[in-house]
What we know:
Layout: H1 2-16, H2 20-23, E1 28-39, H3 46-59, H4 63-70, E2 77-84, E3 90-99, H5 102-113, H6 126-136, E4 142-153, H7 163-173, E5 176-182, H8 189-196, E6 205-208, H9 214-226, H10 231-234
Parallel strand pairs: 1-2, 1-4, 4-5, 5-6
Antiparallel strand pairs: 2-3
Helix pairs in contact: 3-5, 3-9, 4-9, 6-7
Amino acid sequence: MRRIALIALVLVGLNATPTGAQLFRGPEPVDVLLILAVDSSASVDSREYWIQMTGIANAMKDPEILTAIEAGYDGAVAISVIEWSSAGAVEVAIPWERIHDAATAQRFSDRVSRLDRYILSGRTSISGIVDYAREYFPESPYEGTRRVLDVSGDGENNDGLYLSSARRRAIEDGFWINGLAILTDVPDLDVYFRENLIAGPLAFVEVADTYDDYPAAILRKLLRELSTTPISWLTHVQ
């Protein structure tokens, strides 16, 4: 009888205890972990900052973006918005947020459209935001099949560590870096980004000739980054 009672207690305990999958479940999977790193240095005035944020907000409401997200293996992505300028001047404007349907895409868009600017001046430390991403990706509560740093900017690295060194460390860590070059101040910034910033076998540079072109450029860029099969696989790596 004692043996039967002991077995019964064990069975009750097993039913009340989470399964092995529940006990050891890791971070929730998503198709892409994407950091949208927005230039907030002294070269960016309030109108230009507003254009960047409005462009991101509107892009996330675009039906093509939602289609791309839902077509993924996990049907979800996680995105964070970060402002950056000088070395050490980095502010997480929106922490990691999981987007998987129209409602969550709309919520993310609304948050971006209401953002206040955290950084109002400073130099341009692209190396700073690249190195920050190395520490920030592991903090995500989600696990991405791909990890992508999306850097928008209108100038070359002029503060902090060498960009080439930061890019090398990013490659060693295994995440991609794509660039959105805004050519208002540096007409060949896209060339600079290709030669010094982007990293990963599918990395690319999108171009906005002026800030007014940014909304269309960020939409094109997000479509490439969030698609199940990145568009650069189907064409060529820039």
